[in-house]
């Protein structure tokens, strides 16, 4: 929508492939592999998860267009796997819905540590040590659109 000029400003996760955009990283987040305490992998939470096979669990994931889902699929491919061969128990439209389903025992997921933080603290989710990339949150604006003073100040604040 920013590239088309429909909105002045946008925020996305991960990467953007669009010409004519001013793209600025405004925050970074760590991804984490989490399961419910009742999940068989939970006993490996404090050790390296290389002893688990990612295909041995059902998965609860965001919709295919989401950045988190894209990172999960990239991770699977980097390990020589095919994400289409995984059992996807649920595809949900929000991080909160994914977190709740995993807490209820529906499967494993990869999600933002920020989203999982309260559940990890409460013990309703267990994090496994798994090599996941950090991701950037990006602010986008069209390079050819007029920047108002309010937008300029907002850009500066968001970039701090």
TrEMBL record:
An annotated Gene Ontology molecular function: transcription cis-regulatory region binding
Domain LysR substrate-binding positions: 1-158
GO biological process, one term: regulation of DNA-templated transcription
The keyword Metal-binding belongs to this UniProt entry's keyword annotation: no
InterPro entries, alphabetized: LysR_subst-bd
Keywords: Transcription, Transcription regulation
PANTHER family named among the record's database cross-references: HTH-TYPE TRANSCRIPTIONAL REGULATOR, HTH-TYPE TRANSCRIPTIONAL REGULATOR CYSL
Family the entry assigns: Belongs to the LysR transcriptional regulatory family.
Protein name per Swiss-Prot or TrEMBL: LysR substrate-binding domain-containing protein
